[in-house]
Design goal:
Blueprint lengths: L3 H22 L3 H35 L4 H28 L2 H6 L1 H29 L2
């Protein structure tokens, strides 16, 4: 099974996360909220493509494997993925415009740091765990 496309998608997701991290660093939402909202939407699109591809192609193939360890890990990751997608969708809907970000500025930084950390953790877990089991 070829995982190159999934790894490239991870790289593009990481690029968006780095841009968001940089934009949030100075904490000046008046200056950066519009651009942050743009990159939240861009990240949402990249995540949607990635997760849809995993749902449609990668995970079904992994679940058909003769390797029970691979099947068990794929099942576990698939369950966890649904939660991450729901959390990110809620986050995106809450902060996908400048006005929404500015109106929730007190909670924004904590929430964006948490969701970005969750996405990175998920990708690292796939890369160091599940993807390494695929031959």
């Amino acid at each position: 099974m070829e995982l190159k496309n999934y790894m490239e998608q991870h790289d593009r997701i990481r690029e968006e996360l780095e841009i968001l991290k940089t934009l949030c660093k100075n904490r000046d939402l008046e200056q950066t909220a519009s651009e942050i909202a743009l990159h939240i939407s861009s990240l949402a699109g990249k995540l949607k493509i990635h997760l849809s591809s995993e749902d449609q192609y990668l995970y079904p193939a992994l679940l058909r494997s003769a390797d029970s360890k691979l099947v068990n890990q794929a099942e576990e990751y698939q369950r966890e993925m649904g939660n991450l997608l729901a959390l990110f969708t809620e986050f995106k809907d809450k902060y996908n415009t400048k006005i929404k970000i500015l109106s929730e500025r007190d909670s924004f930084f904590g929430e964006i740091e948490k969701i970005m950390r969750s996405i990175v953790t998920r990708m690292e877990k796939e890369e160091s765990g599940l993807y390494r089991l695929v031959k």
